[in-house]
């Protein structure tokens, strides 16, 4: 279910940027063992000990500055906050690593007692709600690790971890939005939300990261309809890009829903976001979209060239895409487009695409996707595609292990007539679906079966990086068959 809580900004832990124009930049070093927060920080020999500071004025970062964290270090019990000024696309701030890479990535975590700070650390918060907060623009986070540890375990829900901890949080300043931030080549695990792009951030790119087992639930109780958590990336803002990440195991126990969690969650009025070329295994859902009643209707979000593989696991109900029409309290969500995704969901409660509560053509367009869903159909949602209205559906390929995928579009539940005449009900001919290899065999009916994608320049390669199209027409699914 959608996670709606907001983690507030903490005070006194900022890495504060200079107000002068960006110059050539300075490199700062942080060493958990041999550093000292009273030192200059400008060389390995004079490294700081912690990435946060409680000094009046805080750390100074500006355009072209680099903050390097030593490999093998672990810092916990405090929020690290970066406030960036005088940065730009030409003069970004870099937060990255140095030292021996065999020691593992520098790690930010939340538990009590992780960091033994000798001097100038201030009072430790312990259990910070955010591990790294980025305030402002053009900050690149590269090669770090973020690890959450729950302080509460719910034994009544299978030992489910409970807590409120986000890995990386992007937001704007009091004077404007945060522009052009980036998270790349990082590992994010064990958290409530791995990364959050707030409503005040735009143009954020999250790519080439590994989100695994972010299974912590923010809320988990007997009150109906309020459980939520276990999210890889949550998007609240506009114009952001989530691409080439691996999402694995965002799947949690829930009293309300049995299982909960999603690789990507869109919450709020965020529009024109692009979620593409990601790989997802064993998540309760790949993407869920919703908004508060008071928020403007989000539009123009696109989900393309992703590979999504579920398992017949605890919930038996992994979903690909969940969105909402105007009659849902978390809707409506406008003009979402899902194109050229390859989805394999073998659970008996599998749900390919679910769009209910007035899902019309203005809500959802589904084109060029392969959806294999073994949902048994005992509820209408357990289907390859469920639209209670006339959502736009064409040039898709649907299948199930039984050979009879469940489909429900505008009340018609006959796959032969419910789907568009250009769609197919057939085995997609994947190389090895059990191993998650959803490339096409040379005999696949998906080859040359798609339709041209609007704004093709945005998707000029397939999931593997091969040019699109290869043949006379684009193939259905995330992979172009190679000659």
Question: How many H/I helices?
Answer: 1
**Roughly how many Å is the radius of gyration?**
23 Å
User: Major β-sheet, in short?
Assistant: 13 strands, parallel
Helix-strand category: mainly beta
Percent helix range:
under 10%
Q: Name the overall outline.
A: globular
Strand order of the largest sheet: 3-1-6-9-14-18-24-29-32-35-38-41-44
At CATH level 2, the architecture of the largest domain is 3 Solenoid
Q: How many β-strands, per DSSP?
A: 47
Let me know the average pLDDT: 90
Proportion of β residues?
35-45%
What is the CATH class name of the largest domain?
Mainly Beta
**Cα end-to-end separation:** 43 Å
CATH T-level fold name of the largest domain: Pectate Lyase C-like
Number of domains: 2
Low-confidence stretches: 8-13, 16-20
What does this structure look like?
The protein is mostly beta strands and 483 residues long. The protein folds into 2 domains: 14-336, Pectate Lyase C-like (3 Solenoid), CATH 2.160.20; 337-483, no CATH class. It is 1% helix and 35% strand. The protein is built from 1 helix and 47 strands. It is globular and about 70 Å long. The two termini are 43 Å apart. Residues 8-13 and 16-20 have low confidence and may be disordered.
């Amino acid at each position: 279910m959608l996670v709606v809580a907001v983690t507030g900004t903490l005070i006194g832990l900022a890495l504060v940027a200079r107000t002068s124009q960006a110059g050539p930049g300075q490199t700062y070093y942080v060493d958990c063992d041999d550093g000292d927060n009273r030192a200059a920080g400008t060389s390995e020999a004079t490294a700081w000990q912690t990435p946060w500071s409680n000094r009046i004025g805080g750390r100074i970062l500006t355009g072209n500055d680099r903050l390097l964290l030593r490999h093998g270090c672990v810092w916990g019990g405090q929020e690290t906050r970066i406030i960036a000024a005088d940065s730009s696309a030409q003069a970004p701030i870099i937060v990255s690593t140095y030292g021996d890479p065999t020691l593992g990535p520098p790690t930010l975590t939340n538990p009590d007692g992780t960091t033994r700070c000798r001097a100038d650390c201030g009072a430790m918060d312990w259990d910070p709600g955010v591990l790294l907060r980025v305030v402002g623009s053009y900050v690149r986070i590269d090669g770090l690790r973020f690890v959450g540890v729950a302080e509460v375990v719910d034994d009544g829900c299978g030992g489910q971890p409970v807590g409120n901890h986000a890995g990386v949080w992007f937001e704007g300043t009091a004077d404007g939005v945060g522009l052009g931030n980036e998270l790349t080549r990082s590992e994010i695990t064990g958290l409530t939300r791995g990364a959050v792009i707030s409503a005040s951030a735009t143009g954020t790119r999250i790519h080439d990261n590994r989100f695994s087992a972010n299974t912590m639930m923010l809320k988990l109780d007997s009150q109906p309809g309020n459980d939520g958590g276990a999210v890889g990336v949550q998007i609240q803002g506009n114009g952001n890009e989530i691409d080439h990440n691996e999402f694995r195991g965002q799947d949690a126990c829930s009293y309300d829903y049995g299982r909960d969690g999603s690789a990507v969650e869109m919450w709020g009025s965020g529009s024109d976001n692009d979620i593409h070329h990601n790989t997802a295994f064993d998540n309760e859902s790949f993407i869920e979209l919703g908004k508060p009643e008071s928020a403007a209707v989000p539009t123009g979000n696109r989900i393309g060239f992703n590979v999504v593989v579920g398992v017949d696991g605890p919930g038996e109900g992994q979903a690909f895409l969940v969105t909402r029409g105007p009659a849902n309290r978390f809707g409506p969500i406008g003009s979402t487009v899902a194109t050229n995704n390859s989805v394999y969901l073998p659970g008996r409660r599998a749900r390919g695409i679910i769009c209910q509560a007035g899902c019309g053509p203005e809500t959802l367009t589904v084109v060029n996707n392969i959806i294999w869903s073994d949902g048994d159909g005992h509820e209408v949602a357990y289907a390859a595609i469920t639209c209670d209205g006339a959502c736009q559906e064409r040039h898709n390929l649907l299948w199930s292990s039984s050979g009879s995928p469940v489909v429900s579009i505008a009340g018609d539940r006959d796959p032969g007539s419910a789907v568009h005449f250009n769609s197919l009900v057939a085995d997609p001919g994947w190389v090895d679906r059990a191993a998650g290899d959803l490339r096409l065999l040379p005999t696949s009916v998906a080859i040359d079966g798609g339709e041209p994608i609007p704004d093709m320049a945005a998707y000029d390669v397939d999931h593997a990086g091969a040019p699109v199209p290869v043949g006379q027409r684009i193939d259905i699914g995330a992979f172009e068959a190679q000659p």
